[in-house]
Amino acid sequence: MKSISLGVVLAVALGWAGGAAAKEFRGTDTHTLDYPTSQALVYWGKLIQERTHGRHSVKLFLLDALGGEKETIAQIQSGTPDFTRVELASLNNIVPETAIPALPYLFRSVAHMRKAMDGPVGDEILKALEPYGWIGLAYYDAGARSFYNTKRPIRTPADLRNLKLRVPQSDLFVAMMQALGVTATPMAFGEVYAALKGGVVDGAENNWPSYEETKHYEIAKYYSIDEHSLVPGGLLFSKKVWDTLSTEDQNIIRQAAKESMVYERKLWDERELQSRAIVEKAGCLINAIPDKQPFSAAMTPVYDKFVTTPRLKDMVKRIQAVR
After folding, report:
1. Residue 90 CA neighbour count, 13 Å, CB half
2. What pTM did the predictor assign?
3. Which of 17, 31, 228, 232 is the one with CA 20 to 30 A from 111?
């Protein structure tokens, strides 16, 4: 956080580029270097370097150094930077298919989400990105999102009413919060700490590592586990740049991305345990919400609004059918 305030750009350069066909792929993540998604991108870069014998390398800019997710999503359409790791929720207003894994209470568990997104439906969602100028390479686990705030524990939907909560810049997340009586405040992820500290918002919703890494837990002490969303993140590559690469290089990059996804999941599972232990030690007031039915029952208008075509409805059914 200090590096942001000083305007320091954090960049991690991997490998070297030799020869006329060499390319240094530049890209972004919103987190710190030790965060699972950042580490997975570093691993991805190492695989690319090794398998192209140093022709290609990766340079990673962290902590919104090139702008927030909304900015970098638009930037890679034009090929600068070359890739980004974003929350799929940030794409919901652009690509309708990305709203499906963001639907509240869709997945029964992390295992269910991973199996579903590794299957045909997940492939269809990645393919749906291409007409918009992005190549979807892989899903990075982003954990289960739950509510946290400065006011009170959440046990029933009534406890959420009139709270001001930050949400991603996604119409779907806004609709979900409105259905629960929340005053939804769309905001870039990097702005949340100051908003919590200044009382602009009462809280937010996110996973354990994000809650801990950002120090949000120091201000918003109440963390209520409902796991309303298990939407993963996506590793997106610029289609404009992608189309200039050879088929061999495309295959190397895509396969490396799939392997980095497996690596990221391992790191994620470990980090969740560490993050939860940190916030528990800090004295945060954590409670589970055992009965999620009243929350999920309130989501009918959200599904009606965002699952509007036979194709999208079929995708929801196929995900629900995964065992």
Report:
1. 20
2. 0.84
3. 31
Instruction: Give the CATH number of domain 2-143+231-271; options: 3.40.1190.20, 2.30.180.10, 3.40.190.170, 3.40.50.2300.
Output: 3.40.190.170
Domain 145-230+275-321 of CATH type 3.40.190.170 = yes
Q: Which two tokens stand for residue 298?
A: 């309130």
Spatial distance between the Cα atoms of 154 and 156, rounded to a whole number of angstroms: 6
For residue 318, count other CB atoms closer than 10 A to its CB. 15
Q: pLDDT tens digit string along 260-287?
A: 999 999 999 999 999 999 999 999 999 9
Which pLDDT does position 12 carry in this prediction? 42
Pairing of strands 83-87, 23-28: parallel
- pLDDT-derived band at 5 (thresholds 50, 70, 90) equals very low
